[in-house]
C-alpha cells in the first residue's frame, strides 16, 4: 500500500467575499506542483457561497462534475435546458462532454450554501453533455460505506453514473465501526476525505477535512469513530 496524507490545514484557500473556498488540489489562485490531481480526480473544492450570490454562466468541456450540497440550496441553470434547485441531501451530476454552459447560484437570500464541487477527468472525450440529480438518503446505509455514483458501464437503471471508471462512496457512522473498503478495480486508488469526525487508517489518524490518497492495495481497513462522515472517491491512477 502507498499513501499520502493531506492535512486539512495544507489545503489552498481563497476568500472572494461572496465565495469562501478551500482547495484540495491546484485551482484558481492556488497552485502547488505536488497537488495537481490524484489519479483522474482533478478538483475537490469545499465552497461556501454567500446568500443570493454564486457562479454566473460559464462554460465547461470534457469534465465530469459532481456537486454535493452540505447545507442550503443552489439554483441550477444550463444550456441543455435544465433548471431547478439542488439542496442538502441531493447529489448533482453534469457531464460537460463536448461543451456546456451553466450557472449555480445560492437559492437563498438569507443563508449561505455549503457544498463540495468535484471534477473527475472523463475516459471518453466530447461525449454528449448530460445532467442528473438524485436524493441520496436511500442510497447511504447506516454505518457502512455506500456507493452513490458508478461508472456508466456498471450503472443500473436508477444509478447515478459518470463517464469514468470511478466510484463515489459515502459513509455516515453513528457507531464506532471497523470496516473494510474493497477497491473495485485493479490499478485504482482511493481519495479518502473525512467530512466530519475521525478515522484511523493504520498508524494515521484523520480528523475533520483531513484527507488521504491510497493506492497499490486491494482493500483499505478503517476504524471509524461514532459521529463521522466520510467521502471516498475511487479513480484510475493513470
Provide a descriptive summary of the structure in words:
- This protein has 238 residues and is mostly beta strands.
- The chain is built from no helices and 22 strands.
- The protein has one domain: Jelly Rolls (Sandwich).
- A 7-stranded mixed sheet has the order 1-20-17-22-15-13-14, with no helix packed on it. Strands 2-3-4-11-6-9-12 form a 7-stranded antiparallel sheet, with no helix packed on it.
- The protein starts with a strand and ends with a strand.
Q: Which residue ranges are poorly predicted, with pLDDT under 50 across at least 5 consecutive positions?
A: none
Strand % is: over 45%
Domain module tally? 1
Q: How many helices in DSSP terms?
A: 0
**Range of helix content:** under 10%
How would you summarize this macromolecular structure in one to three sentences?
The protein has strands at residues 2-6, 12-15, 19-23, 41-49, 54-60, 64-71, 73-78, 83-87, 90-95, 100-106, 113-120, 130-135, 145-151, 160-162, 167-173, 177-182, 188-196, 198-201, 204-207, 211-215, 219-224, 228-236. The protein has a single domain (2-236), classed as Sandwich (Jelly Rolls).
Amino acid at each position: 500500500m502507498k499513501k499520502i496524507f493531506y492535512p486539512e490545514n495544507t489545503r489552498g484557500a481563497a476568500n472572494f467575499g461572496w465565495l469562501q473556498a478551500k482547495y484540495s488540489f491546484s485551482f484558481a489562485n492556488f497552485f502547488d506542483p505536488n497537488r495537481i490531481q490524484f489519479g483522474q480526480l482533478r478538483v475537490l473544492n469545499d465552497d461556501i457561497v454567500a446568500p443570493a450570490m454564486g457562479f454566473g454562466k460559464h462554460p465547461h468541456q470534457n469534465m465530469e462534475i459532481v456537486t454535493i450540497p452540505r447545507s442550503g440550496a443552489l439554483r441550477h441553470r444550463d444550456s441543455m435546458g435544465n433548471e431547478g434547485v439542488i439542496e442538502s441531501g441531493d447529489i448533482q451530476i453534469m457531464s460537460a462532454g463536448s461543451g456546456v454552459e451553466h450557472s449555480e447560484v445560492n437559492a437563498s437570500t438569507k443563508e449561505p450554501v455549503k457544498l463540495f464541487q468535484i471534477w473527475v477527468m472523463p475516459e471518453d472525450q466530447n461525449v454528449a453533455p448530460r445532467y442528473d440529480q438524485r436524493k441520496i438518503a436511500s442510497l447511504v446505509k447506516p454505518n457502512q460505506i455506500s456507493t452513490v455514483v458508478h461508472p456508466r458501464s456498471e450503472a443500473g437503471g436508477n444509478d447515478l453514473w459518470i463517464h469514468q471508471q470511478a466510484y463515489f462512496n459515502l459513509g455516515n457512522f453513528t457507531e464506532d465501526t471497523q470496516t473494510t473498503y474493497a477497491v473495485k478495480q485493479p490499478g485504482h486508488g482511493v481519495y479518502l476525505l473525512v467530512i466530519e469526525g475521525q478515522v484511523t487508517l493504520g498508524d494515521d489518524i484523520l480528523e475533520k477535512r483531513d484527507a488521504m490518497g491510497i493506492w497499490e492495495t486491494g482493500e483499505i481497513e478503517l476504524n471509524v469513530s461514532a459521529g463521522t462522515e466520510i467521502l471516498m472517491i475511487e479513480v484510475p491512477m493513470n
